[in-house]
Amino acid sequence: MNEDLYKILGVSKKATADEIRKSYRKLAKKHHPDLNPGDNAAEEQFKKISSAFSILGDEEKRGKYDRGEIDASGQERQPEGMYRRYADSAAGNPYQSQAGFADFADLGGAFSDLFGDRVRRAGPGGMPRMRGQDVRYHLTVDFMESVKGAKKRVTMPDGKTLDISIPAGVQDGQSLRLKGKGMEGLGGGPSGDALIEIKVMPHAFFRREGDDIHMDLPISLAEAVLGAKIKVPTITGEVTLSVPKNSSSGRILRLKAKGVPRPKPKGQKTVGRGDQYVTLKVVLPEKPDAELEAFMKDWAKTHTADVRKAMKGAL
What we know:
With 315 residues, this protein is of the alpha+beta class.
């Protein structure tokens, strides 16, 4: 992705972190696949928005992007200098110098003094044997991919393509290490590792706290007063939730074992899951209802309970 990340989020390069976050949330809700089923264009735009926010929404990554240290996909620029010249030589792109490779033979001792076990003399020419450089990559995943697990294919900064298994329950900021998938070693040295840092995009409805899932559930005034059975989304599908009679806005109900899968402890057969917590939000009709207003006027005459009694004297 070579597009300007600021343009994708519709903000200027001088935008504050709060402005970037607000713009992302607005666009994410507009293009979220859950709200646009079957709309491939909306899904593609959502991915672009999410990828852009994964960089601009992180102060450190935004700084690197502004300085040109990473590109629009979050990939770091290729290293320069001596290591790059060695790597080019190993890949069949020999680096030409006036001194030639004979100069490198004398560097083996220096490398050994500096890096210890990482460097060894290999072969008659004394070429330094060095472990390959680790390669870092920032991978953006959807919220549902992070909690349910997924298979992703990514292109690394050095052009390699890797298939990555995202484990169920991976957390934002967590790094996955793929041994031996980094840069090739020098002089027969082992390859480095690929370090995949995971960035999890926020969901339109769900919030994660540890292994638990939280969400706000709008209910009508009638459902709050009379109680109801309501279909509620979870990360594994819809379930039926019983809303008790006389439920106030802000009441929290628990759906047991409907949260994020926990990592499997050694020696145990079961993995276990967190819970899902549903916060009720009573929503009144969008337009004024004359009949409801008339009823409430009569009802209020005989119901004068002080619902803010506990707050008196608090200030």
